[in-house]
Amino acid sequence: MSIMIQQSAEIIRKAAPALHPKIAVMLGSGLGAVADLLDETAALSYSALPGFPVPTVKDHEGSLRTGHVAGVPVIFLKGRQHFYEGAGFDGLKIMIRTLKALGVDILILTNAAGSLMPENGPGSVVSIKDHINLLGSNPLTGANDDDWGPRFVDMGDAWDKRLRGILQDCAKKSGSRLDEGIYAAMPGPAFETPAEISMLKTIGADLVGMSTVPENLIARHCGIKCVGLSAVTNMAAGMSDEILTHAHTIANAERAQKDMATLIETFVQEATKA
Fold first, then answer.
1. 121 SS3 class
2. Whole-model pTM?
3. Is 68 in the active site?
4. What tens digit of pLDDT does each residue of 173-201 get?
5. Which residue out of 4, 16, 26, 29 is catalytically annotated?
6. 112 counts as catalytic
7. Are 24 and 216 spatial neighbours (Cβ–Cβ below 8 Å)?
């Protein structure tokens, strides 16, 4: 695994030799156009990077883009591989540890999510303040690689409080509302049942999706700070009469793209000042 991380990092450095990014952004379902913020210097398919996980889900492009946002060097990861795709977590570890090897210390994780909050309907953007891992698995299970992080990881600040504060300041500057919520990761690929949503409400969840938590765990293990943004695509099962489909998810995520792009652009500038 370490060899593939070194190889992937070297390929990226050769493609963008003058770029020294401290921030990376992972884009979820229906959010690929947020990468249009980028003054692009290089584009690489995940398949060209040793060990990178190649997505199989429609609308997850599977490409790494490098360049600048408002003059700040940034890496965009267009698409992700999900737990339900059955490939395990090794590829995700290689991807995120490659970011660490390149010098990234802030990872913005985005996703499309169902909302359990009536005040945050489709098209809204919510900041993740904490998460609940209900995947039934953890990417840090197994032998620990001490070169990347400790056996036992403190998750008390899994979603960095200081960076979340910067996000809130950015939202205020743009005159937009940005609530915070707790994200529950479910294994998928089936959408949740109304009974499962009732359970999630009981244990304190505000958002539900099928990703993001594994990336956060791997990033925190190797010392990368995280912030998260969910594009709300639907009210969770039982909270409306909508029939949930992937096409529905993509369409409503696209409604949130503009607000998310504005927020990320401002955040990138402010976070690098702090």
1. coil
2. 0.96
3. no
4. 988 899 999 999 999 999 999 999 999 99
5. 29
6. yes
7. no
